[in-house]
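Inverse folding, one chain.
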């Protein structure tokens, strides 16, 4: 290889590394994924993250970027060793970032790279991210609300802006697909349905006649008619009517056993994150054991307005949106307000086939 070709290769590889930083800063996830070979890998052992192939890199970038309040990355030139149509090298990174859940810091890191010449030019065959220094002290600065630089695609507005939107607004089709993909990656079955009537029909398909079914206290179930279908139709061994017939003073142990380990639990959630977590809140905690794993099977019906970027925003939604509405209902029905005394977060489903999430395109419940 002549000296001119070597110079050209080095310039193109350096441009590739700069393109990576620009795609990350501009939140252009498809462009970032395209910088890798089709089977390229992005590995971050300290996080930990391992994504192989452009689809995983695209999905992983969406999950990561949905958590940012702001993020700044600077890339400093490192080494490049050419070897025909392949090369290796290192790039030195400085980053400052703050997530929506409050995590923040400054770090210095190294990308250990392998590059491959392709018909489309040089691409990353592998990037391995090694953190060399991390400072999690509170950052003094902030990101201006108007900080959308030239060329920023409005469709890729920051997650912080999205989080500021009303918790009653239904999520877009793109966000629902992102949630469904993240849930499936975590072991849940996830389906996207048009509306509550479709969910009602799907629940009938999923519940065998005669099955023992416990329904959580849920406005989504009540408004959709699913609560009545289960507890008043006679098709199932409905647990909630049995519990309501037991004297609470003398039958507390029987109630606890009935609700903790049913064959099926059907419920809703307070929030579902774009990273694939379900968040349930409760005043008494009585319905949480079945959802957590006590029930052999679980079905959650989730309105589109319950989609949030991350767990931090999910907890805000519980406190700022769901709790006031539930307190008003509880005050009217029971004469006392509600409270978030118990929280359940389901990040994954370790028993494949146990949990099914029905995501609706419409808003329902709160």
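Residues assigned per position:
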């Amino acid at each position: 290889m002549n000296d001119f070709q070597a110079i050209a290769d080095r310039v193109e590889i350096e441009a590739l590394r700069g393109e990576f930083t620009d795609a990350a800063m501009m939140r252009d996830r498809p462009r970032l994924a395209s910088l890798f070979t089709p089977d390229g890998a992005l590995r971050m052992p300290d996080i930990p993250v391992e994504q192989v192939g452009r689809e995983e890199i695209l999905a992983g970038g969406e999950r990561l970027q949905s958590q940012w309040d702001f993020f700044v990355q600077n890339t400093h030139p490192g080494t490049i060793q050419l070897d025909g149509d392949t090369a290796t090298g290192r790039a030195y990174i400085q980053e400052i970032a703050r997530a929506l859940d409050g995590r923040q810091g400054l770090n210095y890191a190294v990308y250990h790279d392998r590059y491959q010449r392709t018909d489309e030019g040089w691409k990353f065959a592998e990037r391995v991210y090694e953190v060399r220094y991390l400072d999690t002290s509170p950052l003094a600065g902030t990101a201006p609300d108007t900080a959308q630089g030239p060329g920023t695609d409005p469709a890729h507005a920051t997650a912080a802006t999205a989080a500021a939107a009303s918790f009653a607004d239904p999520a877009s089709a793109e966000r629902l697909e992102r949630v469904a993909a993240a849930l499936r990656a975590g072991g849940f079955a996830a389906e996207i349905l048009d509306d509550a009537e479709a969910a009602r029909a799907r629940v009938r398909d999923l519940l065998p006649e005669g099955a023992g079914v416990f329904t959580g206290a849920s406005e989504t179930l009540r408004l959709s008619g699913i609560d009545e279908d289960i507890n008043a139709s006679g098709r199932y061994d409905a647990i909630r009517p049995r519990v309501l017939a037991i004297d609470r003073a003398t039958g507390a142990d029987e109630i606890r056993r009935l609700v903790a380990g049913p064959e099926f639990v059907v419920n809703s959630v307070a929030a579902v994150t774009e990273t694939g977590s379900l968040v349930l809140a409760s005043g008494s905690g009585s319905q949480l054991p079945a959802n957590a794993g006590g029930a052999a099977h679980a079905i959650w019906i989730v309105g589109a307005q319950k989609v949030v970027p991350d767990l931090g925003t999910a907890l805000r939604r519980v406190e700022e949106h769901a709790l006031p509405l539930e307190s008003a209902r509880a005050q009217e029905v029971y004469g006392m307000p509600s409270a978030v005394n118990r929280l359940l977060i389901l990040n994954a489903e370790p028993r494949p086939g146990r949990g099914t999430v029905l995501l609706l395109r419409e808003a329902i419940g709160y």
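The two ends are 65 Å apart (CA to CA). Residues 162 and 223 are 27 Å apart (CA to CA).
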